[in-house]
Amino acid sequence: MKPPPSSSYYSEVESYYNEDAGLGFEARADGNHSLERIRGDFRNITVKYPFTRALEIGCGPGFDVHWFAKNFPGRQFCSVDISASMVELAQNRLRADNLANATVSRSDERTLVETFGPESFDLVYVYFGALNTVENLEAAAEEIRKLLKPGGIAVLTFVNKWYLRELFVQMAKLNFKTAFARLGRVWGGYSVTRHLPSHCYSPGRIKKAFRSFSLLEKKGYSIVYPPWYNDHKNRNNPGKADRLWQVDQKLQHTPLWAAGEYSLFVFKA
Asked: Is residue 260 domain-resident?
């Protein structure tokens, strides 16, 4: 079932990602070692929890649904994305390996219960901040709660509001607009030439939106480790990158866990 006509907000989000698909997003992401390292950690945390049927919200070109479907052939996977172009890329990726245990469709978080039915999944996962582009985080949290069976797991990642490393780096460069961009009511995304309507969230804001869930674990990423869009720094000095990654692991037990580029939360319905 296709979603109802999008509001101007969702139309703008869809247009952004449709364009991104045509600008080589898939190839750029596929060759980004930093992105893969972070993605691998997301996956390792996710597979600790038992599940038989999973939903991915914001699948992009299908890297993760493909990986899950290939590595867990006895389980079922559904993925959605607001971008028709991204959905096509993801479908092609699944077809290439004949992965019949996974489906991809165009939708957004507003119509998922209507599409799949309540208590349809025991796992919902969202990687790399797809929930930063929803219009109402509380409404999205309620939709996810309805989708999950009792005791189901949600593994959710967000672009952080307070990213201290980037804040200080950009201030040192006198790029004050970039330094404080995440702190506004609306964040324009990573591109310097295109605007993505989105919102950055603090951990407190996320916990408030998902207060009907139990919090099982949390983790921060790229606290001192360079973010994925600075992958060239890690390629040029992999030894230093490894050391910074280990520093990030140690900082998880301090208040700085929430000061990185991404945060991950595991919630139980």
From this structure: yes
Beta strand 121-126 with 148-159 is parallel
- Residue 169 has phi, psi (to 5 degrees) of -60, -45
Pair of tokens at residue 176:
């004050």
Backbone φ and ψ for 232, nearest 5 degrees, come out as: -60, -30
Q: For residue 263, what are the β-bridge partners?
A: 158, 220
Domain holding 31: CATH number? Answer: 3.40.50.150
**Angle, CA 206 vertex, CA 202 and CA 210 arms, to 5°:** 170
What is the C-alpha to C-alpha distance for residues 56 and 82, in angstroms, rounded to an integer?
12
Counting DSSP H helices and E strands in the chain, the numbers are 12, 7
Query: Do strands 121-126 and 102-106 pair parallel, antiparallel, or not at all (unpaired)?
Result: unpaired
Residue 2 lies in a domain: no
What is the pTM (predicted TM-score) of this model?
0.93
pLDDT tens by residue, 80-121: 999 999 999 999 999 999 999 999 999 999 999 999 999 999
Nearest C-alpha neighbor of 228 from the set 202, 252, 262, 268: 262
- The number of angstroms, rounded, from the C-alpha of 200 to the middle of its chain's C-alpha atoms is 12
As for how many domains the chain has, the answer is: 1
Give me the domain span that covers residue 205.
8-268
What are the distances in angstroms from CA 77 to CA 24, 59, 103?
25, 11, 6
Contacts (Cβ under 8 Å, ≥6 apart) of 157: 42, 126, 127, 128, 129, 262, 263, 264, 265
Residue 159 CA to residue 132 CA, distance in Å, equals: 7
